[in-house]
Amino acid sequence: MSVTLTPGETTGLRAIHDAVGPVTLKPAARANVERSARIIAEAAAGDAPVYGVNTGFGKLASIRIAPGDTATLQRNLILSHCCGVGAETPAPITRLMMALKLLSLGRGASGVRWQVIALLEGMLSRGVTPVIPLQGSVGASGDLAPLAHMSAVMIGEGEARLPDHPTPLPGAEALAQAGLAPVTLGAKEGLALINGTQFSTAHALSALWQFETCLDESLVTGAMSTDAAMGSAAPFRPEIHALRGHPGQIAVAGRLRELMAGSEIRESHREGDERVQDPYCLRCQPQVAGAAMDIANTVSETLQREATAVTDNPLVLSDGSIVSGGNFHAEPVAFAADQLALAIAEAGSIAQRRIALLVDPALSHGLPAFLTPEPGLNSGFMIAEVTSAALMSENKHLAAPCSVDSTPTSANQEDHVSMAAHGAVRLHRMLVNLRAIIGIEALVAAQGIDLRAPLKTSTPLRQAIRRIRELSPALVHDRFLATDIERVAGLVQDRGLTAASEPSGARS
């Protein structure tokens, strides 16, 4: 994997997130970067006060800094802002965060030297991954604490991980082992590194990509549940969804039709079924999952835009002026994260209702209670359904909006903040829950379809069930199910059901 990043474009970000490999910024960006660096250097040597260049920061902006103290000012800024706490940010998200910072600096409005960009490139290319605590950002004035932990390694402080090294190393040692040297920061460079939304945006982008996988997987399990319950595919007919017109709804209905096409179970009750309509959790899958898909697409547009944005302060404008603004305020990311949280919660909610339907003999159209051949002696999937309900409920709580919260910081200079970091970080906990819910649905729906034998489901769904059965045998007698749930949740994470149900996923 080798990635060349182009300022203003997002190509290559997913590859950087997924694996360590050579990363460079397009050389054409260098001219703009060096131009703005010269302008900042001139301002630092001048008499006029320029925020963050020859002044203090935040509430201390009125204090002038002598030219000889420029390097000390920037170093102190990084060290003083390393106040993060909590668990460590996962390495893929940290790599993505570093790549986003490269894209931002590469726009040539931040005033950093190319030397700073080259060090970030080297760290990404050689797998030097700073240890960044998850907690400490309020989403303005940028993700200060997390970005400071990233930047600390660049000046030989903090901690970082190296590939195949079991524990974190001191920043200077990690750089040395990777054949890199720390940088002495010049005027504004520390501020350019720690101002910005890259921590929040990286978490939100990573969550978006994972949710898109979960949504695809939930369409497979939703189709399986529909067939297991002997539900109707009529609500997925194209004209119904064309009459409403939402693109996600149309796409989901089409996918469900593909997945269920040719099912013997479906054909067996097409005539003479006394039921007039299925419950909403089956019938309204296109409306719910489709709306979630549309939300994901909207969130993607916002985050793709933010990924290439210049979000530090002050900025060097095209006319050479240095102007303070507020691009570090992460409200767009906070709103996007909150929207995504709603979609995650709803995808889990409707999947959980399908699980509940299948284990209930009053609703499952002839399946045994809790899907065990010997109910009473065995409890079957009784508590797996309870677990799915617990996870669904937890996600509902976590879906409460973070963006409506704010608290004044920095002696009231930074008096309205976005809480984008809170909003984005919590998405990953929700996704762990969602994958488990979908995994439980996969187990329950596969069991339901097995119990419809000798009738067979469709070819795509048989292929998905075959993949499930490689990890979890059919439940004949009660057994320890936590391991099965974990394995199939992992299958969901790896997009295994979608891959298995596609034509290329057919197995002998």
Structure summary, number of beta strands: 9
**Strand sequence of the main sheet, in spatial order?**
4-6-7
Residues in helix, %: 40-55%
User: How does the major sheet shape up?
Assistant: 3 strands, antiparallel
In N-to-C order, the SSE pattern is EHEHHEHHEEHEEHHHHHHHHEEHHHHHH
Beginning-to-end CA distance, first to last residue: 32 Å
Large-scale geometry: elongated
How confident overall, as mean pLDDT? 95
Radius of gyration (Å): 26 Å
Structural class: mainly alpha
Beta content comes to under 5%
**Which residue ranges are poorly predicted, with pLDDT under 50 across at least 5 consecutive positions?**
none
Q: Number of helical segments?
A: 20
Question: What are the key terms here?
Answer:
508 residues; 5% strand; two-stranded parallel sheet; elongated; three-stranded antiparallel sheet
Describe this structure in words.
The strands form four sheets. Strands 4-6-7 form a three-stranded antiparallel sheet. Strands 1-2 form a two-stranded parallel sheet. It has 20 helices and nine strands. Strand 6 and strand 7 form a beta hairpin. The chain is mainly alpha-helical.
Summarize the structure.
The protein is mainly alpha-helical and 508 residues long. It has helices at 13-18, 30-45, 70-80, 91-105, 114-125, 144-154, 171-177, 189-194, 198-228, 238-242, 247-260, 264-268, 280-283, 285-307, 331-359, 382-398, 420-450, 459-469, 482-493, 496-501, and strands at residues 3-5, 23-25, 85-88, 129-130, 133-135, 159-161, 169-170, 315-316, 322-323.
